[in-house]
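During the no-cost extension, the postdoctoral fellow (Dr. R.K.) reprocessed legacy sequence entries with the updated structure-token encoder. One reprocessed record is reproduced below for audit purposes.
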Amino acid sequence: MSIAVAIDGPAGAGKSTISKSAAKELGFIYVDTGALYRTVGLAASRRNIEPVAGEEVNNLLESIKVELTFNDKGEQVVLLDGEDVSAFIRTPEASMMASKISAIPQVRAYLLDLQRNMATTNNVIMDGRDIGTVVLPNAEVKIFLTATPEARATRRYKELVEKGMDVKYEDILQDVITRDYNDSHREIAPLKQADDAVLADTTEIDLQGSIDLVVGIIKERM
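Re-encoded structure tokens follow.
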């Protein structure tokens, strides 16, 4: 029987990095669901489609193929119509587009089966905004990972600067605050902590401490 771990939380909480490291330590498969929404958002951007529910989005979903695969290092690779777009979906612009695209019911329905199927055949750690509440409501372990907006903005700023990107902290912070509001106030599957999820606040904890915290929660609940 496979084990599913659902990790939810706001933008910039470190879900991807922490979940990926925890999965490696536990021998689980890591599934970054946010990458799926970013990929659909990228497809919409490339076609100059406004991310609102309607015929254009329906036609877009019918014309694209989104896949999750893994390279020989066990790292997740996201494909859009066969193209590896992993490097194109990590910009602030892609992040904001993902927030908008994820509020569209058709998009959520399009990606739901893909996410659930991966959890039925593998031990997975899956992160996102509504994994514990909607995608995997019966997950064996649920964690709500968070930190203050300022802490999350600082981490994202440092990450982008290290990649050589010209960004401003104030802009990153505003993006975080805006996305928090959008994600928690959308009509479809809003961001919220599941009733049976463990709260993990990493504001005052470094990366390794955050990984240890999450791994400890998973081991305790398994």
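The chain has a mean pLDDT of 90. The longest helix spans residues 105-121. The remaining legacy entries will be reprocessed before the final report is submitted.
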